[in-house]
Every structure is written in structure tokens, then in C-alpha cells.
Amino acid sequence: MPSIFLSFRKRDSRWMRDRVYRALSHHLGADEIFKSGQSIPPGADFAEILRRQAAECALMCVLIGPGWIDARGEDGVRLLDREHDWVRLEIATALRAGNHVVPVLLGDATPLPDASALPPEIAELARLQFLRVPETHLADGLAHLGDELTVLLSGTGTDPAAEPGQGTAPAAGPEPSVTMTAHVSGGGSAYQAARDQTIRLA
After folding, report:
1. What's the rounded Cα separation, in Å, for the pair 202 and 28?
2. Class for domain 4-155, per CATH?
């Protein structure tokens, strides 16, 4: 199961979206990234896969470009206002499941949408701390995004960068106290040899 679900609007900032996907695939491994165009095999039930992946992902990145909030269909209706809009359904599914959802703003000036501009079931998105991938410093922005997502995944217990067997070792318990007996001739005194050792006169 991929750890990161990329939610995006197909008409919105395609070239930056593709750069994000390639950068994260290189940084974390392609198997850790779910992107519908690459991750759903031909002939599969895409609706069932999208819902399952959105519900079970460790982290969802909502890629938001300049045209994300106001994209409209041929009838002029805003896509987000349609109950069966896939972007809306993906985000709502991840939020209901309690998954970690991160808005990722594509470009230098793309704003985080206001809650009032979002359907009620995804209005929470407007209150979530975002990451930005600026166009003017794209390479640095992509590297920063990969680093931040790696840290977030490690906090969820899913760290694709960790090798098998490199989990955190359980804390060692206190070593048993060792009592040593000293035979002192000609006088002497007891002393502390180490924090887990005591010496007493015989």
C-alpha cells in the first residue's frame, strides 16, 4: 500500500504536478506514491481503488495550483461544487478516516483556499498547515517537500527511508547492581566504584 496519496485536479498546473511526482518518487521510492495516472492498472475498478487508497493512505498531499479552486465544467458549474467530484471525494474520504492531509501549494503565489470557498465536508482543508513548492526555486522547493514528508511519515510510523530491521530498539532496562566485597588490611574505607557497583568492607 503506497504511503502518500497525491490528490490533484488534472487541469491544474500539470507540469509542476508531474515534477512533484517525479521528485517524490526519487526521494521516497515510486512504490510509496499513489498517483492515479501511474498507480491504477488498466481494467481495474478505478473508483474502488481511489476510495480505498484515500481511506488507507498514511498521508494525502492535496496539490493546489492557481486553477484548483475555480475549475469548472462545460456547463459552467464549479467542479468542487459537484457532489461526485473526485477531488472533493478523495479529500473528504481522507479527512473522515483521520489521515494526515497536507495542502501543497504549487507556485509562488497560489493561496490556501478559504473555508468559505470549500464544500463543508472539506472546509477543514483551509485550517491545515500547508507546504509550498515555488516555481522560482523549484529544485529547492521539491527537495524541501521530500524532506518534510519523510519527517511526517516517520511520525506516523511509516518511514520508507528506513531499512528493514532499523526500527527503534527498545530501551535497555537498568543493569543489575553489583556488590563487591573488599578485604582491607591496615585500615581503609569503602567507596563507590561505579554507579552500579557498591563496595563494603568484609
Report:
1. 63
2. alpha beta
Rounded-to-integer distance, Cα 179 and Cα 191, Å: 12
CA distance 7 to 4: 10
> What sections of the chain are H helices per DSSP?
14-28, 36-39, 46-56, 86-96, 138-155
Side chain identity, residue 172: A
Q: How far apart (Å, rounded) are the C-alpha atoms in residues 68 and 79?
A: 9
Dump pLDDT digits (tens) for 123-154. Answer: 999 999 999 999 999 999 999 999 999 999 99
Convert 62-85 to b/e letters by CB count within 10 Å (16 or more is b). Answer: bbbbeebbebeeeeeeebbeeeeb
Statement: residue 169 has pLDDT above 50: no
Taking only the tens place, the pLDDT of each residue in 60-97 is 999 999 999 999 999 999 999 999 999 999 999 999 99
Q: Look-up: residue for cell 527537495?
A: 143
Question: Would you tell me how many other CB atoms lie within 10 Å of the CB of residue 160?
Answer: 18
Locus of grid cell 480505498: 52
Where do the structural domains in the chain lie, given as residue ranges? 4-155, 171-202
